[in-house]
Amino acid sequence: MRLIRCLASLFAASVFGSGCRHVPSSEAGSGHSSFRFVDAPVGPPPATNAEVTQPTNHSQWREATLKEPFILPVYPAAALRAKAGRNLVGVHIVVDPAGRVSDIRMSMRVFSTPGPFAENFRDAVELAVRQWRFNPARAESYEIIHDGEATSMRMTGSEYVETEFDLAFTFQADGTVQTGND
Questions:
Q1: Residue 6: what pLDDT?
Q2: Where in the chain are the domains?
Q3: Given pLDDT bands bounded at 50, 70 and 90, which one contains residue 45?
Q4: Hey, which bits of the chain come out as E strands?
Q5: Which residues contact 96 (CB under 8 A, 6 or more apart)?
Q6: Are residues 146 and 10 in contact, defined by beta-carbon separation less than 8 angstroms?
Q7: How far apart are CA 119 and CA 138, in angstroms?
Q8: What are the residue ranges of helices labelled H in 107-146?
Q9: Residue 130 in 3-state DSSP?
Q10: How far is the first Cα of the chain from the last one, in angstroms, to the nearest whole number?
Q11: Which pick of 11, 28, 160, 169 has the fewest CB atoms within 10 Å?
């Protein structure tokens, strides 16, 4: 069971830990954006039951994954004309069981750049993210079967579930793409 949790954590870290990056075009003065997941998404906390030494059931969480192709936010034209420079927008999104973004709100984990164009940058993020589609998160149930010395697992159920992410979007007016919070 510990091995399965470890493998699931490694998978999530490899898929989400590095974030996604947008390769800028050479078009000067167009502005660009990029994003990253703030933390690797994690599923529901494991059930704790100190009395169970030989589990007969097991649950596994499969986090939602972003489908390609997806669009990135466009640097707002008014902010570009005003040479607003680098801006960071943090959002918290909810992905429903169908894989659609059902809610977007300000992130409590990412500081968004304040300023006269903050609403323009936030609107650009919301416009892009509302179009994103995900392979939905899934909760899977397994039964552990002990047959003498052999142990195997059999899936007993699977259900698509809602999940949440925090994302950091970085806008650069000079054509470069920032991938972190620097």
A1: 39
A2: 2-20+31-41+56-172
A3: very low
A4: 32-37, 57-62, 65-66, 87-95, 101-106, 134-135, 137-147, 150-161, 163-172
A5: 102, 136, 162
A6: no
A7: 34
A8: 118-129
A9: coil
A10: 38
A11: 28
